[in-house]
Amino acid sequence: EYQTFPGTPRWKKTHLTYRIVSYTSDLPRKKVDDAIKRALMVWSDVTPLRFQRVYTGQADIVIGFARREHGDGYPFDGRGNTLAHAFAPGEGIGGDAHFDDDEKWSDINQDVNLFLVAAHEFGHSLGLAHSNVRGALMYPLYSYQNPQTFRLPADDRRGIQKLY
Ligand code: TQI
Ligand code: CA
Ligand code: ZN
Ligand code: ZN
Fold it and tell me: Which atom of ligand 1 is nearest to the CA of 83?
Protein backbone atom coordinates (compact mmCIF):
# COMPACT_ATOMS: atom_id res chain seq x y z
CA GLU A 1 0.00 0.00 0.00
CA TYR A 2 1.24 3.52 -0.83
CA GLN A 3 2.22 5.91 1.97
CA THR A 4 2.36 9.66 2.34
CA PHE A 5 4.76 11.62 4.54
CA PRO A 6 3.87 12.57 8.13
CA GLY A 7 1.33 15.41 8.03
CA THR A 8 0.54 14.51 4.40
CA PRO A 9 2.37 17.43 2.75
CA ARG A 10 1.01 18.14 -0.73
CA TRP A 11 1.04 20.98 -3.23
CA LYS A 12 -1.96 23.27 -2.78
CA LYS A 13 -1.98 24.11 -6.50
CA THR A 14 -2.05 22.02 -9.65
CA HIS A 15 0.18 24.18 -11.86
CA LEU A 16 3.77 23.50 -10.81
CA THR A 17 7.00 24.83 -12.27
CA TYR A 18 10.30 23.01 -12.61
CA ARG A 19 13.79 24.13 -13.43
CA ILE A 20 16.83 22.05 -14.35
CA VAL A 21 19.85 23.82 -12.88
CA SER A 22 22.67 21.39 -13.61
CA TYR A 23 23.36 18.43 -15.84
CA THR A 24 25.33 15.19 -15.90
CA SER A 25 28.05 14.71 -18.51
CA ASP A 26 26.90 11.09 -18.96
CA LEU A 27 24.08 12.06 -21.34
CA PRO A 28 23.43 14.80 -23.87
CA ARG A 29 21.35 17.59 -22.35
CA LYS A 30 18.46 16.83 -24.65
CA LYS A 31 18.24 13.28 -23.29
CA VAL A 32 18.25 14.57 -19.72
CA ASP A 33 15.52 17.11 -20.56
CA ASP A 34 13.50 14.37 -22.21
CA ALA A 35 13.85 11.88 -19.34
CA ILE A 36 12.80 14.55 -16.81
CA LYS A 37 9.83 15.60 -18.92
CA ARG A 38 8.62 12.02 -19.35
CA ALA A 39 9.13 11.25 -15.66
CA LEU A 40 6.88 14.20 -14.74
CA MET A 41 4.32 13.06 -17.32
CA VAL A 42 4.03 9.74 -15.46
CA TRP A 43 2.29 11.75 -12.73
CA SER A 44 0.53 14.46 -14.76
CA ASP A 45 -1.06 11.76 -16.96
CA VAL A 46 -3.15 10.49 -14.04
CA THR A 47 -3.85 13.71 -12.08
CA PRO A 48 -4.90 17.33 -12.69
CA LEU A 49 -1.23 18.32 -12.14
CA ARG A 50 0.53 20.32 -14.85
CA PHE A 51 4.27 20.92 -15.03
CA GLN A 52 5.74 23.95 -16.74
CA ARG A 53 9.47 24.26 -17.33
CA VAL A 54 11.11 27.56 -16.42
CA TYR A 55 14.67 28.61 -17.21
CA THR A 56 15.26 31.41 -14.72
CA GLY A 57 14.06 32.49 -11.31
CA GLN A 58 12.47 30.27 -8.76
CA ALA A 59 10.59 27.07 -9.40
CA ASP A 60 8.60 24.65 -7.28
CA ILE A 61 10.74 21.67 -8.27
CA VAL A 62 14.43 22.48 -8.73
CA ILE A 63 16.31 19.61 -10.36
CA GLY A 64 20.04 19.10 -10.51
CA PHE A 65 23.00 16.76 -10.54
CA ALA A 66 25.61 17.05 -7.82
CA ARG A 67 28.24 14.99 -6.06
CA ARG A 68 29.16 14.54 -2.37
CA GLU A 69 28.31 17.55 -0.19
CA HIS A 70 26.09 19.87 -2.22
CA GLY A 71 24.58 22.29 0.25
CA ASP A 72 21.54 20.58 1.75
CA GLY A 73 23.14 18.51 4.53
CA TYR A 74 22.49 15.23 2.71
CA PRO A 75 25.79 14.53 0.94
CA PHE A 76 25.89 11.94 -1.81
CA ASP A 77 28.13 8.93 -1.34
CA GLY A 78 30.07 8.30 -4.55
CA ARG A 79 29.27 5.55 -7.04
CA GLY A 80 26.58 3.14 -5.83
CA ASN A 81 24.21 3.18 -2.85
CA THR A 82 22.21 6.42 -2.91
CA LEU A 83 21.35 7.40 -6.48
CA ALA A 84 19.16 10.44 -5.85
CA HIS A 85 16.89 12.06 -3.31
CA ALA A 86 13.95 14.41 -3.29
CA PHE A 87 12.15 16.51 -0.73
CA ALA A 88 8.46 16.39 0.15
CA PRO A 89 6.22 19.27 -1.04
CA GLY A 90 6.84 22.59 0.66
CA GLU A 91 8.56 25.96 0.46
CA GLY A 92 12.26 26.35 -0.31
CA ILE A 93 13.94 23.00 -0.81
CA GLY A 94 10.53 21.28 -0.71
CA GLY A 95 9.90 19.36 -3.94
CA ASP A 96 13.50 19.63 -5.14
CA ALA A 97 15.17 16.56 -6.65
CA HIS A 98 18.92 15.90 -6.68
CA PHE A 99 20.75 13.20 -8.63
CA ASP A 100 24.17 11.80 -7.69
CA ASP A 101 26.54 12.63 -10.52
CA ASP A 102 28.96 9.92 -9.38
CA GLU A 103 26.48 7.40 -10.80
CA LYS A 104 26.62 6.36 -14.42
CA TRP A 105 23.34 7.74 -15.81
CA SER A 106 21.75 6.15 -18.83
CA ASP A 107 18.70 6.48 -21.03
CA ILE A 108 18.73 2.78 -21.89
CA ASN A 109 19.03 -0.41 -19.89
CA GLN A 110 22.60 -0.41 -18.70
CA ASP A 111 23.75 1.47 -15.61
CA VAL A 112 21.17 3.60 -13.81
CA ASN A 113 18.14 4.63 -15.80
CA LEU A 114 17.47 8.34 -15.32
CA PHE A 115 13.81 8.20 -16.32
CA LEU A 116 12.93 5.46 -13.79
CA VAL A 117 14.84 7.04 -10.91
CA ALA A 118 13.41 10.48 -11.72
CA ALA A 119 9.85 9.14 -11.86
CA HIS A 120 10.39 7.66 -8.37
CA GLU A 121 11.94 10.87 -7.03
CA PHE A 122 9.11 13.01 -8.39
CA GLY A 123 6.72 10.74 -6.51
CA HIS A 124 8.49 11.99 -3.38
CA SER A 125 8.45 15.59 -4.70
CA LEU A 126 4.66 15.30 -4.97
CA GLY A 127 4.13 13.76 -1.53
CA LEU A 128 4.37 9.99 -1.85
CA ALA A 129 6.61 8.10 0.58
CA HIS A 130 7.51 4.44 0.04
CA SER A 131 5.00 1.73 -0.76
CA ASN A 132 5.17 -1.80 0.59
CA VAL A 133 3.68 -3.19 -2.62
CA ARG A 134 6.36 -5.07 -4.55
CA GLY A 135 6.45 -3.77 -8.11
CA ALA A 136 5.09 -0.31 -7.22
CA LEU A 137 7.19 2.57 -8.54
CA MET A 138 7.46 3.84 -4.95
CA TYR A 139 8.60 0.45 -3.62
CA PRO A 140 12.15 1.07 -2.31
CA LEU A 141 13.97 -1.30 -4.64
CA TYR A 142 15.43 -0.31 -7.97
CA SER A 143 14.34 -2.67 -10.71
CA TYR A 144 14.88 -1.98 -14.35
CA GLN A 145 11.85 -1.77 -16.61
CA ASN A 146 11.79 -0.68 -20.22
CA PRO A 147 11.07 3.10 -20.11
CA GLN A 148 9.38 2.83 -23.52
CA THR A 149 6.67 0.54 -22.19
CA PHE A 150 6.54 1.80 -18.60
CA ARG A 151 3.07 2.02 -17.09
CA LEU A 152 2.43 3.48 -13.66
CA PRO A 153 1.41 0.62 -11.34
CA ALA A 154 -2.09 0.81 -9.84
CA ASP A 155 -0.84 1.32 -6.27
CA ASP A 156 1.08 4.48 -7.23
CA ARG A 157 -1.87 5.73 -9.27
CA ARG A 158 -4.22 5.29 -6.32
CA GLY A 159 -1.74 7.09 -4.05
CA ILE A 160 -1.25 10.14 -6.24
CA GLN A 161 -4.96 10.37 -7.04
CA LYS A 162 -5.70 10.40 -3.31
CA LEU A 163 -3.40 13.43 -2.98
CA TYR A 164 -4.50 15.30 -6.13
N1 TQI B 1 17.33 7.32 -2.73
C2 TQI B 1 16.37 7.16 -1.71
C3 TQI B 1 14.96 7.15 -2.35
O4 TQI B 1 14.67 8.02 -3.18
C5 TQI B 1 16.44 8.31 -0.71
C6 TQI B 1 15.36 8.20 0.29
C7 TQI B 1 15.24 7.29 1.28
C8 TQI B 1 14.22 9.03 0.36
N9 TQI B 1 14.09 7.51 1.97
C10 TQI B 1 13.44 8.56 1.43
C11 TQI B 1 13.80 10.11 -0.37
C12 TQI B 1 12.25 9.14 1.75
C13 TQI B 1 12.60 10.70 -0.04
C14 TQI B 1 11.83 10.21 1.02
O15 TQI B 1 14.18 6.28 -1.99
S16 TQI B 1 17.89 6.06 -3.55
C17 TQI B 1 15.18 3.92 -5.49
C18 TQI B 1 14.52 2.60 -5.34
C19 TQI B 1 16.68 5.57 -4.69
C20 TQI B 1 16.07 4.35 -4.55
O21 TQI B 1 18.97 6.56 -4.31
O22 TQI B 1 18.14 4.98 -2.66
C23 TQI B 1 14.89 4.72 -6.59
C24 TQI B 1 16.41 6.36 -5.76
F25 TQI B 1 13.22 2.74 -5.22
F26 TQI B 1 14.71 1.86 -6.39
F27 TQI B 1 14.99 1.98 -4.29
C28 TQI B 1 15.50 5.95 -6.73
CL29 TQI B 1 13.82 4.20 -7.82
CA1 CA C 1 25.77 7.22 -4.87
ZN1 ZN D 1 20.53 17.00 -2.14
ZN1 ZN E 1 12.33 6.63 -2.57
Answer: 21
